[in-house]
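Figure 3 (text version): C-alpha cells given as input.
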C-alpha cells in the first residue's frame, strides 16, 4: 500500500543470445571482474543469481567519468540471473510480462545475427522486456590490440584506424539487422534518447574490454527508466518459481526469484501446479554462504530467516513437488488471503493451458514458462492449437492428435518442447501415423513443423 515505505531494488537482468555467442563467458567475466576488485562485498551470491553492488559498478565506471559525467547510482546494484538462455527466461514469467526487468542480448560481432538472436528478440518483444545489445568478441576483430578490463572507449582509441573502421562496419551490420526488425539502434555513446534507441555496447567477454560500460549503461538505463518498476514494498513477497529440484533429505525444493516484498521463514506461501494450487508454509530459506573466493567448486547453502527483493532463494516447504516451474509464488498474510491468491494463481496457470475439441496441433512443454512461449510463437504464426499442456508426451496426447487429424490432417501432430516421449505414446503414434516434433529450441520446432506442413500441402 502507499503507506509502506518504498525503496528501489536491484533490477533483474537476464542474458540471452545465440549458442556460442558468449553468454556464459560474459556472466563469468562480470562475476570475475567484480571479484577481482577485492571490494568488501564485491559480489553476493544468490540461488540462481548474482548481485553486483552499486559501489562496484561505480568503481568500474570511474575511468568513464569523461564520457559519463554525473554518474551516480541510486539502485543498490544489479541482479544477474546466472543461467543464460531462453528456457530460464521463459520461466521468469509474470502475468503479461516478465520478472526480468532488463536483458542483455549477446551477439557475436563476427557472426552477427543468428536464428536464436531473432528468437530472443521475439520473446523479449512478447514479454515487453527492454534490452541492450552486447556486441561480443571484439577481440577477434583482425588486428585488435587487447587492453584487458579497460573501458571500450579507451581501448577503441588505441586501435589502428583500419581496426576501428572494421569494428564500425561490424556494428553497422548489427544496427542494420535491428532496423529491419523495427528497432532503432546505435553505439551506446552516440545515443541521445535512450527511450527510442537500443544501445549497442561493444565488449569482449574474454578480455573484459567494455565490461565497465556494459555495467554502467545497464545501471544507468534501469535506474532512469524503470524506477517505478523497481520500487518495492516491504510487504508480502511476490516471485516466480524458476526451477524445482529434488534435494536429498529435503524432498522437492523450489528455486525462486523474488521481485517484490519480503519472504520470511514460516510464511504461508501460495503457488500453483497442474493439479491445483499449492498452499504451504516455508520450512526454511536457503542462500549460498558468503565466500571470499568466487571460484570455489561447491557453494554451500545456509539457512536464513528472510530475504528481501530482489533475491534468488531456495525454498524448502512441504508439497512443493506439486508445483510447476514458471508458476507465480506469493506470500499470504493469512489462510483467507491464501485462498484468494490460490484462485488467482490457478487462473493464471489455466490461461496458459489449452484444451479444446477443435482442429489444431497438440503442444507439450516441460514447464509453464516454455509452454507459454511456445503457444505464443505458434499463435503468432497462425497455427491453431487443440491442446497445450505441461508434461511428457503421453498416449492421451496421441489420441488427441488422432482426433485432430480427422478434422484436419495437417494439424494431427504433436509439438513437444524439451519433453520426453513416453514409450506407449511412441508406439501409439507409430500405429496411427502421428508425426511427433520434439526439440529443445523453439524456433527449430516451429521451423521443422512448418517445413513438414509445406511438404504435405504441396
Ligand atoms: P554461450 O553458448 O553463449 O554461453 O557461449 P560461451 O560463453 O560458452 O562461449 C562460446 C565460445 O566463445 C567459448 O569458447 C568462449 O571461450 C568463446 N568466447 C566467448 N566470448 C568471447 C570473446 O569475447 N572473445 C573470444 N575470443 N572468445 C569468446
Ligand atoms: Mg552457455
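Below: residues designed for each position.
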Amino acid at each position: 500500500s502507499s503507506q509502506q515505505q518504498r525503496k528501489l531494488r536491484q533490477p533483474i537482468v537476464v542474458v540471452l543470445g545465440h549458442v556460442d555467442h558468449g553468454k556464459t563467458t560474459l556472466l563469468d567475466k562480470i562475476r570475475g571482474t567484480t571479484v577481482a576488485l577485492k571490494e568488501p562485498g564485491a559480489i553476493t551470491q544468490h540461488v540462481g543469481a548474482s548481485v553486483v553492488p552499486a559501489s562496484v559498478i561505480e568503481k568500474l565506471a570511474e575511468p568513464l567519468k569523461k564520457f559519463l559525467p554525473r554518474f551516480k547510482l541510486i539502485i543498490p546494484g544489479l541482479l544477474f540471473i546466472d543461467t543464460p538462455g531462453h528456457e530460464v527466461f521463459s520461466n521468469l514469467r509474470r502475468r503479461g510480462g516478465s520478472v526480468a526487468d532488463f536483458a542483455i542480448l549477446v551477439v557475436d560481432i563476427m557472426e552477427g545475427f543468428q536464428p536464436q538472436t531473432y528468437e530472443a528478440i521475439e520473446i523479449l518483444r512478447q514479454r515487453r522486456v527492454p534490452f541492450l545489445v552486447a556486441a561480443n568478441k571484439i577481440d577477434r576483430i583482425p588486428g585488435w590490440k587487447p587492453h584487458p578490463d579497460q573501458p571500450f572507449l579507451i581501448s577503441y582509441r588505441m586501435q589502428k584506424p583500419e581496426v576501428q573502421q572494421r569494428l564500425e562496419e561490424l556494428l553497422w551490420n548489427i544496427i542494420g539487422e535491428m532496423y529491419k526488425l523495427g528497432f532503432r539502434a546505435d553505439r551506446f555513446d552516440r545515443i541521445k534518447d535512450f527511450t527510442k534507441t537500443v544501445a549497442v555496447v561493444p565488449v569482449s567477454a574474454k578480455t573484459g574490454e567494455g565490461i565497465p560500460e556494459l555495467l554502467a549503461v545497464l545501471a544507468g538505463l534501469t535506474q532512469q527508466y524503470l524506477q517505478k518498476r523497481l520500487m518495492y514494498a516491504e510487504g508480502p513477497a511476490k516471485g516466480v518459481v524458476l526451477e524445482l529440484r529434488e534435494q536429498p533429505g529435503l524432498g522437492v525444493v523450489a528455486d525462486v526469484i523474488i521481485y517484490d516484498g519480503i519472504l520470511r521463514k514460516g510464511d504461508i506461501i501460495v503457488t500453483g501446479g497442474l493439479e491445483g494450487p499449492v498452499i504451504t508454509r516455508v520450512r526454511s530459506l536457503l542462500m549460498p554462504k558468503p565466500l571470499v573466493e568466487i571460484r570455489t567448486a561447491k557453494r554451500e547453502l545456509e539457512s536464513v530467516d528472510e530475504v528481501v527483493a530482489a533475491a534468488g532463494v531456495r525454498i524448502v516447504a512441504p508439497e512443493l513437488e506439486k508445483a510447476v516451474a514458471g508458476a507465480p509464488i506469493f506470500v499470504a498474510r493469512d489462510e483467507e488471503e491464501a485462498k484468494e491468491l490460490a484462485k488467482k494463481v490457478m487462473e493464471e496457470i489455466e490461461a496458459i493451458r489449452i484444451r479444446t475439441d477443435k482442429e489444431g496441433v497438440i503442444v507439450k512443454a516441460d514447464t509453464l514458462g516454455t509452454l507459454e512461449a511456445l503457444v505464443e510463437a505458434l499463435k503468432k504464426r497462425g497455427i491453431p492449437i487443440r491442446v497445450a499442456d505441461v508434461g511428457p508426451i503421453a498416449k492421451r496426447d496421441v489420441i488427441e492428435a488422432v482426433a485432430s487429424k480427422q478434422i484436419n490432417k495437417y494439424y494431427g501432430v504433436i509439438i513437444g518442447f524439451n519433453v520426453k516421449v513416453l514409450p506407449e505414446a511412441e508406439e501409439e503414434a507409430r500405429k496411427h501415423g502421428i508425426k511427433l516434433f520434439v526439440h529443445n529450441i523453439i524456433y527449430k520446432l516451429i521451423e521443422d513443423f512448418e517445413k513438414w506442413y509445406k511438404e504435405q500441402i504441396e
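Residues 17, 19-25, 84, 136-137, 139-140, 204-206 surround guanosine-5'-diphosphate (ligand 1) (CB under 6 Å).
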